Structures are given as structure tokens and as C-alpha cells.
Inverse folding.
């Protein structure tokens, strides 16, 4: 009868919130929905102060646990009954294994190798000092809380193992959260960001090794057993690195997955590798998460393969599994256990030691390696971040019986506060204004005592005036048409000077794969556009050229574009309709007040000899007249045809090589341009809108507001023959 009732569901009188061991999915779904929705609601306000999602997930668990909502009568018994927790834990731990696989996948040991000296010193100093102080405070924790809470702790835990674990917990740095904070603060690719990521890799690897050692020693009944555990664990890692890694690389190459993305066979192989590795490290006596981590290190990184793997699985891990795990951490956290002065004194001491020792150790090491003091403090502050990894370590300690629930709660409070403080503390010691000053100083644009440039010294015998023409190029690609256009603009005479700043602004989403694509290890070779542009720069002897890559969060993209437009006489933004990145750049530039030239290139044009100018007398035409007469038409190297679109009082003098024609509206603009066969068509933004109303044969639609004009550029180029197109928009 009960079985029939269950089959009938709620209509048969069954209660969906009642746990049923034979059919646990109903309550599991209720738990899942509550956790995910609750955490997302909490994350919304926290995102405005740039806090990582793990803060919301742990706080959500604390609120759902015995500290807050658990005090409501029957809340935990109804929503999180004790019998249902093992199923929830199993799901969360599967997700955790794959998350550690992603962490291993994201780590590239060559990153630390490229910055070994400074990153190594920061990583070592940032671990030794916290580890030593952690071991010291462990003495008080062990003798004041171990005996009081020994009912919840395995009595074979010695002080040596306890101190080893506490030292590791205070010394470790949360690499995944660290990368996210760097992206939020626009520090990826900077000197500080590169050093922090490089040191974070070394810190992470060393931390996991020490944690594996601690767990192995705790799970061993004798010294000889612990030795066997460590030897077999090392043997498994060597087996994966020496035999499995080359075999996996061979399979990936054989199936064409490097070029075309992972095939189904490759994905199955990697999934099995993760689970088998987790199984092996668990039965060896370490922990299944170490198996997932080592499996991530095995996957090849060539040709972006690791990124492609990450893209396939990251969403379900970060959006589905991880909130469960960290909410469970919050459920195990009972703030009610922090109920006396001694407990709070130790909690505060743990927080101070965790922050101060990391900042002091890492900052001093960075300063001794040649960084400025503020840069060094920023490195130290960032290295003190705890986040995801710290909570995983604490849960391992709780599960292994090293920590009691009270000490676990003390350390969770420390992890939350350290992670929460990291972003605002970094912004205070290393503000954006200081970053810009350091960047300008290192480029040689200013003396350290200056706020603005007085002279620009390129070499010992060359001094340029204080206010040369400034040109900013928003790079998305480098092609022959862009180079040909710049050849027109950059002065031939070495007596003149033009400052050319090329910047490639890249968006960074909150996905792991996005961070991997734009990692510090690949930063210098991030995008061939900057390097291609800089390789061409020596031909422009009268120009001072510098290139830069700006990596910014997705929501800050328009503001980041605006930052690079200051003090530029002209901003050039290449555009290609099929390139979403260039579309975003031009759209953002159009939203800002600047003198803008949108270049729609024809890749076949390697030089510009004949230019057609569509002139209507608007403010945009005043700008293009100024630019063209100043840089292009004064040398006699280019012929031009000026087509006057409407009645204007005077037509400016474009030079003796210019032919002026008045448009009689009898012939379409398209036909005129086709007859002229120019290499470049120059037109004002307002003129484009005007032609849309009068010459519909040239434009596909008549609705050409600021944003919709981008949709018409492809039509214009297609209709106007074999020409590149430049649209000028005045500020």
C-alpha cells in the first residue's frame, strides 16, 4: 500500500520533503534548489564589492546550518535530515574531485619556471613564516581545545601531526580564487599579477604535497605503514607522469583533438583517468581529491587543449557541484561553539597570523627581488588569500579527525575574513592611479617625481617635445590595410614626432577557461596583434611606439576602453563584422567622447595611393579635414577626390593633388566610388547617416544610430568595391 502511495506521488499522500532512502532524489532536488538559489541571492550584493562566489556559498551554508536557520524548530530535520547528508556529501565530493582536476589543469608548472627566482622566493617566504607561526599557535590550540574536544577527535593524533596540519592550513594560498581576484582588479599580466600567479602555483603544489603527507601520516597506524603510503602515492604520481601522460598525449594527437577539440574517446579517457586516479589515492590512504589534482597535471596544454577540456565541464562543476560542497562546509560550521573569550582570542590570533605572516613574508621577499614597496605589499596581500583551497583543506582535516568542529569553525571564520579582506586591502595598497604611474615610469614616460610627462627621452641623443601628436590604436587585429593607413598618418620627417600607443583590450569572464586563455604564462604571447604591430614599428622612425595588453573583467570593458582614450588626438579602431572582439571594441569607443576613426580594412590593400573623401561640412568632416590635411595630403604622395555631398559655404583646401566634385544626386555614391576605384574611402559619421536618407542604394537600412552603424559597415565595404573604409566621428 505504501509503495502504491509513493508511486502516486503527492496525490497519493506522500510528503516530498520526507526523506526516503529508497528514493532520495526528491529531497535531494529540494536541497539542491534551496542551496543554489540561496547562494546566488547572497552573491548578488557581494559581487558589487568584488567578492568571490565562495564567500556567498560558505555564508549560505552558515545561514542554513545550526548557527542561524538551524535554530528554527525542525528546520534541519526537515530540509537537511541527518540521513540525507551522506547522499549530498557523495554528490559534493564527486564535484570536488573534478574541481581539483580543474585546479591541476589550470596549473602550468612552466609558469613558475619562467619566473623561478622571484616567484620561488615569494612562494618559499610566503609558506615558511606562516607555517612556523602556525606550528607555534598549534601548541595552544592542541592543549586548550584538543583535550576538551577529544571526543570528536581520533586520540592517536599527536601534537606533531596536529601542528603540521595547522601549519599547512595557514601557509596555503587559494590559487583559483587568487586568479579571479587578479582579473577583477585588472592585474593579470602586470608585474604584480605575474609574480603572484607564479608564486601561487608553487605555493599550491607544495601545500597539496604537505597536506597529502599529513593525511597519509594520520591514516597510518604505524611509521612503517606511513612510509608505505607515501612510497606508493609517489609511485602512482610517477606512473601517471612517466607512462600515462605520454600515452594521453599520443591519443590526443592521434585523434586530432589538438586541432579540433577533444573527441568523445578522449573525453571518456580523461573522465576515467580522473576517477581511477581518485580511487587509487583513496585506497592508498591519502584522499581522492589528490587523485583528481594529479590527473589534471597529466593533461597536455599544447594548442589550448587544456582550455578546451575545461570549457566542456567547468559550468556544471562551478555552478552545480561546488555550491553543494561549500554549503556543506557552512552546515558543519557552528558559530555557537565560539562561546567564550578564550575561543574568540584564539580565533582572532589565527586571523592575524594568517594575514600578517603571509603579507610580511611574501612582501619582504618581493621587495628584496627588486619590486617597489607598494608592489611588494600588493603581492603579500594577494598571497594571503585563502578561499576555496583553504576550505577544502579544513574539510579534509575535519574528515580525517584532526580538527574538532569548534576548531574547524574557528578556521572557517579565518578563511572567510582573509578572503573577504584581500580585494579591498589590495586596492588600498596598490590603487589604479599608482599602477598607471608605475607603468609610465617603467616605460620612461615620466620621472618618478613627475605626474605628467615633460620630455620624452628615447635615447641619449634624441629628445622630443612635450606635446607631440598622440595616436591610440585599439587593436583587435593587425592587417596590411591598418599598416597602410598608419603609413599615411605617421610623419615622414624625423623632426616631427608622433606618440603611438597600441593596446589590445581583452575581456575576462568568470570562467576558469577564460583565465586559462589569458594566463600570465601566455601573457607576453597572448595575442599576436600586439607583437605583430611592435615588429612593424621600427619602420616609423618619427614615431614613438609602445604596445600593451589590457585584461579586464567583462563588466568593466567599456570603462577600460575609455581609460585608454585619454589625451589621444585620434583613436583608431579597426573593425571587422565577423570579429566579435572588434565589434565590442568599436561599440565601446562609440559610447565615449573621443575623436574616433573606425577603420574597416580591405586586406588586399598594402598601400594607399588614391583616397576618396565624402565631405558634408559637419563636425565629423572638420575632424577628418584636420587629420587629412595635417598628415596625409601635404606631402603629395597621395591623390584624392573630394565629393561634396551637400551645399557648403567653403570646401577646405585638401592640397594640390585633390580633385573636388559636387554630388548632383543623379548618380549614386556607390557608382561614383566604383568609378574612382580608390584604395581608401574616408567619410564622416554624420555623413553616413545623411546618405542613409538620400542614397538608399548605398546603405542597406535607414536606421543608422550609433550602434546600428556597425551593422552597415559590411554592406558599405561590399558595395564600395575594393576599398578600405574609414569613418571619422568627432568628440
Amino acid at each position: 500500500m505504501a509503495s502504491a502511495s509513493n508511486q502516486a506521488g503527492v496525490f497519493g499522500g506522500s510528503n516530498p520533503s520526507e526523506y526516503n532512502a529508497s528514493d532520495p532524489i526528491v529531497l535531494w532536488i529540494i536541497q539542491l534548489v534551496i542551496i543554489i538559489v540561496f547562494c546566488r541571492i547572497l552573491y548578488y550584493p557581494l559581487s558589487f564589492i568584488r567578492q568571490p562566489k565562495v564567500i556567498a556559498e560558505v555564508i549560505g551554508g552558515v545561514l542554513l546550518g545550526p548557527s542561524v536557520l538551524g535554530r528554527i524548530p525542525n528546520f534541519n530535520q526537515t530540509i537537511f535530515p541527518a540521513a540525507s547528508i551522506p547522499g549530498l556529501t557523495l554528490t559534493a565530493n564527486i564535484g570536488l574531485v573534478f574541481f581539483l582536476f580543474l585546479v591541476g589543469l589550470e596549473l602550468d608548472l612552466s609558469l613558475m619556471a619562467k619566473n623561478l627566482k622571484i616567484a620561488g622566493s615569494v612562494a618559499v617566504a610566503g609558506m615558511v613564516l606562516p607555517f612556523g607561526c602556525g606550528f607555534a599557535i598549534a601548541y595552544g590550540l592542541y592543549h586548550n581545545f584538543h583535550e576538551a574536544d577529544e571526543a570528536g577527535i581520533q586520540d592517536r593524533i599527536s601534537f606533531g601531526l596536529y601542528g603540521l596540519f595547522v601549519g599547512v592550513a595557514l601557509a596555503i594560498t587559494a590559487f583559483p580564487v587568487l586568479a579571479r581576484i587578479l582579473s577583477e582588479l585588472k592585474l593579470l599580466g602586470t608585474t604584480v599579477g605575474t609574480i603572484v600567479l607564479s608564486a601561487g602555483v608553487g605555493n599550491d603544489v607544495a601545500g597539496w604535497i604537505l597536506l597529502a603527507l599529513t593525511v597519509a601520516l594520520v591514516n597510518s597506524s604505524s611509521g612503517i605503514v606511513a612510509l608505505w603510503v607515501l612510497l606508493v602515492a609517489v609511485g602512482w604520481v610517477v606512473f601517471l607522469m612517466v607512462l600515462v601522460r605520454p600515452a594521453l598525449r599520443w591519443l590526443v594527437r592521434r585523434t586530432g583533438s589538438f586541432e579540433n577539440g577533444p573527441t568523445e574517446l578522449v573525453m571518456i579517457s580523461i573522465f576515467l583517468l580522473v576517477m581511477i586516479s581518485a580511487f587509487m589515492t583513496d585506497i592508498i590512504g591519502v584522499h581522492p581529491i589528490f587523485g583528481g589534482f594529479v590527473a589534471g597535471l597529466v593533461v597536455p596544454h599544447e594548442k589550448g587543449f587544456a582550455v578546451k577540456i575545461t570549457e566542456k565541464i567547468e559550468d556544471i562543476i562551478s555552478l552545480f557541484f561546488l555550491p553543494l560542497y561549500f554549503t556543506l562546509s557552512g552546515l558543519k560550521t557552528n558559530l555557537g561553539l565560539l562561546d567564550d573569550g578564550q575561543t574568540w582570542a584564539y580565533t582572532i590570533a589565527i586571523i592575524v597570523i594568517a594575514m600578517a605572516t603571509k603579507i610580511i613574508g611574501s612582501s619582504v621577499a618581493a621587495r628584496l627581488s627588486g619590486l617597489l614597496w607598494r608592489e611588494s605589499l600588493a603581492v603579500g596581500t594577494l598571497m594571503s588569500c585563502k578561499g576555496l583551497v583553504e576550505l577544502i583543506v579544513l574539510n579534509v582535516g575535519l574528515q580525517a579527525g584532526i580538527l574538532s568542529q569548534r576548531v574547524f569553525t574557528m578556521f572557517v571564520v579565518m578563511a572567510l575574513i582573509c578572503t573577504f579582506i584581500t580585494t579591498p586591502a589590495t586596492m588600498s595598497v596598490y590603487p589604479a592611479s599608482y599602477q598607471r604611474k608605475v607603468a609610465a615610469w617603467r616605460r620612461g614616460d615620466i620621472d618618478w617625481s613627475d605626474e605628467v610627462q615633460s620630455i620624452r627621452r628615447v635615447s641619449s641623443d634624441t629628445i622630443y617635445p612635450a606635446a607631440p601628436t598622440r595616436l591610440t590604436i585599439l587593436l583587435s587585429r593587425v592587417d596590411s590595410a591598418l599598416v597602410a593607413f598608419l603609413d599615411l598618418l605617421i610623419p615622414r620627417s624625423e623632426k616631427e614626432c608622433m606618440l603611438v600607443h597600441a593596446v589590445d583590450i581583452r575581456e575576462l569572464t568568470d570562467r576558469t577557461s577564460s583565465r586559462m586563455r589569458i594566463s600570465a604564462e601566455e601573457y607576453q604571447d597572448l595575442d599576436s596583434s600586439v607583437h605583430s604591430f611592435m615588429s612593424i614599428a621600427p619602420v616609423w622612425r618619427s614615431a614613438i611606439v609602445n604596445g600593451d595588453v589590457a585584461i579586464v573583467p567583462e563588466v568593466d570593458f567599456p570603462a577600460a576602453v575609455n581609460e585608454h582614450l585619454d589625451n589621444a588626438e585620434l583613436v583608431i579602431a579597426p573593425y571587422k563584422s565577423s570579429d566579435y572582439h572588434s565589434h565590442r571594441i568599436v561599440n565601446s569607443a562609440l559610447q565615449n567622447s573621443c575623436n574616433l576613426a573606425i577603420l574597416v580594412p580591405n586586406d588586399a590593400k598594402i598601400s594607399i595611393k588614391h583616397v576618396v573623401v565624402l565631405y558634408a561640412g559637419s563636425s565629423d568632416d572638420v575632424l577628418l579635414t584636420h587629420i587629412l590635411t595635417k598628415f596625409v595630403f601635404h606631402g603629395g604622395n597621395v591623390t584624392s577626390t573630394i565629393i561634396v555631398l551637400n551645399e557648403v559655404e567653403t570646401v577646405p583646401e585638401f592640397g594640390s593633388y585633390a580633385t573636388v566634385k559636387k554630388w548632383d544626386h543623379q548618380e549614386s555614391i556607390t557608382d561614383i566610388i566604383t568609378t574612382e576605384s580608390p584604395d581608401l574611402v574616408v567619410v564622416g559619421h554624420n555623413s553616413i547617416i545623411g546618405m542613409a536618407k538620400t542614397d538608399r542604394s548605398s546603405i542597406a537600412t535607414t536606421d543608422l544610430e550609433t550602434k546600428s552603424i556597425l551593422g552597415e559597415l559590411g554592406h558599405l565595404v561590399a558595395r564600395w568595391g575594393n576599398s578600405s573604409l574609414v569613418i571619422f566621428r568627432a568628440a
Summary: The chain has three domains: 2-432, 465-603, 608-731. Confidence is low (pLDDT under 50) at residues 451-468, 520-526, 692-712. The radius of gyration is 31 Å. The CA atoms of residues 518 and 568 lie 27 Å apart.
